[in-house]
Design goal:
- By secondary structure, the protein is an alpha/beta fold.
- It has one domain: Metal-dependent hydrolases (TIM Barrel, Alpha-Beta Barrel).
- The protein has 14 helices and eight strands.
- Strands 1-2-3-4-5-6-7-8 form an eight-stranded parallel sheet.
- Helix 4 runs parallel beside helix 5 and helix 8 runs parallel beside helix 9.
- The protein is globular.
Length: about 350
């Protein structure tokens, strides 16, 4: 099979995307428009000189990545930009044959632009509903993010906001994302917040073990519910005699799905290369993994490209790729009726695709 035919197969494959951050998932076109607009509004051409994406051979350590994200937040800081990002991102994922998308973001208060937490979420919801009214072929759900840099009090307020929208968004807001710079703070401090969110019926997607912070990850997984793990880069890196094997066993026993973001991890240097990615470890153990982009704009990737990279790195067959995609439906935060609808949609597509039994790299 040629690389081009494999690439085409990955594009044609119906896909699920469960780990997408709003502020890093722009297209080049959308970013350019919003940068130009911001430069004009602020009368400051400095915005145009910022390097805001990583091209094919670029990489950036994780701490430098979070510095870059602060620049992006300065550009995306009003209602217009949040709507534009959400609306365009939904269309772009749909164009990549993504049929179900969970979009996550941390609400902002920006007094000078009139942005508040409720306005932020309402603006995202308006974009989702406008895309639905246009009959864009994608189901979209929203996770409201807790930034671990902001502290527990802010996290509690975030859960309260998410709880309100859980009951007042026509099923669009479904849960909580826990993210932010993993080098800041201790996730253990947030355990009561996670427990409260779970009790309220909010789904939990938690960034854990993105770096080797073993103790906090173990404490979180022992003491509270976790529906999915974001990244999980260091879950399976035990050192002899220090008890870290216990962490791996908890994840396997509880079958907690892992949101695998291969390109993001390679470009932020949390893994050495695609062939070293922990996706292989979990996949070989029949553990649930979902291929995701993290921030398709910053890391210059697509969901189709993530399937391509996985196929080439681990010699996955077309059937393997199909199964990965289809199984991802099980790990969405969608209702049972939506999951059934998605499975039927996959079934309709499968009869039209050539799913050969041989390895993609053969």
């Amino acid at each position: 099979m040629t690389r081009q035919s494999l690439k085409e197969f990955c594009y044609q494959l119906p896909k699920v995307e469960l780990h997408t951050h709003l502020n890093t998932s722009f297209s080049d076109k959308t970013l350019q428009e919003l940068v130009d607009r911001k430069a004009k509004l602020d009368d400051n051409s400095e915005y145009r000189s910022w390097k805001l994406t990583f091209t094919e051979n670029d990489n950036c350590p994780i701490d430098e990545s979070f510095t870059l994200f602060t620049f992006l937040h300065k550009i995306f800081n009003d209602e217009y930009s949040i709507y534009k990002l959400t609306y365009d991102i939904i269309h772009e994922y749909a164009a990549d044959n993504v049929k179900y998308l969970e979009l996550r973001s941390t609400p902002k208060d920006v007094p000078e632009t009139g942005l508040t937490w409720p306005v932020y979420v309402d603006t995202m919801l308006r974009a989702v509903r406008d895309c639905r009214a246009e009959e864009v072929d994608i189901v979209v759900r929203i996770l409201i993010s807790i930034d671990r840099r902001k502290g527990v009090d802010v996290a509690r307020q975030t859960v309260s906001l998410a709880d309100r929208y859980l009951h007042d968004s026509d099923g669009i807001v479904v849960g909580i994302d826990f993210s932010g710079d993993p080098q800041v703070g201790d996730a253990t401090d947030y355990i009561p917040v996670f427990q409260s969110a779970h009790e309220k019926g909010l789904k939990l997607a938690l960034h854990l073990a993105e770096i080797p912070n073993f103790e906090e990850t173990l404490n979180v997984l022992k003491q509270c519910h976790c529906d999915r793990i974001g990244h999980g880069t260091c879950l399976n890196q035990p050192s002899p005699g220090d008890g870290r094997k216990e962490l791996e066993e908890i994840v396997l026993q509880k079958k907690i799905p892992i949101e695998a973001c291969m390109t993001s991890n390679v470009k932020t240097k949390t893994v050495r290369d695609y062939e070293s990615h922990h996706l292989d470890f979990w996949y070989k153990r029949n553990h649930p993994v979902v291929l995701c982009t993290d921030g398709k704009g910053v890391y210059q990737t697509t969901v189709s490209n993530e399937y391509l990279q996985a196929a080439e790195a681990f010699n996955l067959s077309r059937q393997n790729l199909w199964d990965l995609s289809f199984d991802s439906i099980n790990h969405t935060f969608a209702s049972d009726s939506v999951k059934s609808m998605l499975r039927a949609k996959w079934g309709e597509v499968k009869s039209k695709m050539d799913i050969s039994p041989y390895g993609c790299n053969s």
